[in-house]
Amino acid sequence: MSMYNKLKSDGISLRFVYKVLLIIAVIISVLLITVTYRSSSTFNRLSRATDEYIEMQKAAYELMDASDYLTEMAQRFTSTGDVQFLNAYFTEAFETKRREDAIAKMSANPHNQEALEKLQMAMQESLELMDREYYAMKLVVDAQHIQDYPEVLDQVKLSDKDKNLSAPIKMTRAQRMVLDNIYYGKKDLIRKDMQESLQHLETVTHTTQSSLNSEMSSKLQFVRIIIIVQTISIMVMIWLTARLGINPVLQAVDNIKDDSPIPEIGAIEFRYLAKTYNKMYEVYKSSIERLNYKASHDELTKAYNRSGYELILSSLDLKTTYVLLFDTDNFKKINDTYGHDVGDSVLKRIADSIRHNFRSDDYICRIGGDEFVVFMVHTDKEQKQLISSKVKQINEELAVPDQNLPKVTLSAGIVHGTEGPDAETIIRYADKALYAAKNNGRNCFAFYEDIRG
Q1: Which end of the chain is less enclosed by CB atoms within 10 A, N or C?
Q2: In angstroms, how far is CA 215 from the centroid of its own chain?
């Protein structure tokens, strides 16, 4: 009797098959371990390149954060005259020195020369901006007759015209110097240079990663061959199992490739696995949709939409947050007079002006047709003057027609998170303050704490 007939009649011993498969698995494992061990050095270099990019990215953002901090301290000092903000400004400038540390971190890597040059340009522009801030702070020191101030301000000489101004006018001039378009134009230059620095970093890192990926690809080619052999072994084992498991698995693979749920068919064990996978698939899809940018942002203004607003509201520490509720005055009249296209452009301009006057850490949301909410985070109740200046600045910008767009004004209701026990109450208080501002003639703002009975 031939071997084929014997196997056909007697069958194949599963014990023998499993032993053969075990030997094949051991051989494949040894080969995989060898190849992966040799690939580890390449992977480590790739990981280091990524880590260096992250560190350099953090350094670039650190410079911007430090610049924003100096801006905030200068604005708060010129708004309030409180010396603690003056001292905080110079502590950052001459002791903490985060900007200088960012430049030092970038300089340590010789591969990031172009990114370093852009960051140095941002640093130079930040230093130039400090001259304007020094002058504004000297005006406040002179107006308030402050005696205890950093010696570096002695080097700032006021012009004869400014020296002879009255104290209130000096304060107003100082505030405008750190809130006007010239000042924010320089801030935009700093941000532009920082973004270009990050783009150079990304280019260098991408080039390095591409080279290392090519090296990894050649090593992984052998791994693919091993995996093919392993796949053939698995298919043999599948062929030896009951037909009940084959078709469901193949159909499941097709469904996974098509990014769709697995049919709950076949053996009980497979049904259980399919049901578990489908639950994970649903959770995954739900998470992706929640994290999707379009799901949380308004397409027109690029501000957070209602969904993003609700997510932010549920996660913020409102006890350290100012909530500003903006409403566009007579927006329906703009739509009726100029058309909805112009109305949309006006909304985009409003969002840009709000974004321009608040920090990058603050959250800007469009919650209705012409309603916006700003969450000014990490702020205490003592910043009323600064917030008032920002709202006035926004209305001054919008009051000037731009690119054939009509002028527009905003009314605002403002409340600090400590005013209410929960988010719903705080938003209701902000709405009351907005209502008060509307009743006061529009183009103005009201703080809830000033109107509560």
Answers
A1: C
A2: 33
- Burial pattern 50-87, b for ≥16 Cβ within 10 A else e, equals eebbeebbebbebbbbbbbbbbbbbbbbbbbbebebbe
Q: What distance, in Å, lies between the first and last C-alpha atoms of the chain? A: 106
| pLDDT tens digits for range 193-215 | 878 877 877 777 777 778 777 77
| Tokens 């901090």 belong to residue | 69
| pLDDT, greater one: 278 or 165 | 165
Residue 263 carries which DSSP code?
A: P
Residue holding tokens 């061990």? 37
Q: Which residues pair with 302 in a beta bridge?
A: none
Tokens of 51: 């880590």
Which DSSP string corresponds to 395-426? HHHHTS-BTTBPP--EEEEEEEGGGSSSHHHH
409 pairs with which residues across the strands? none
Q: Provide the 3-class DSSP secondary structure of residue 437.
A: helix
- The catalytic site residues sit at 370
**How many Å apart are CA 253 and CA 241, to the nearest integer?**
18
306-451: CATH class: alpha beta
> Following DSSP, what letter does each residue of 302-349 receive, concatenated?
-SB-HHHHHHHHHHS-GGGEEEEEEEETTHHHHHHHH-HHHHHHHHHH
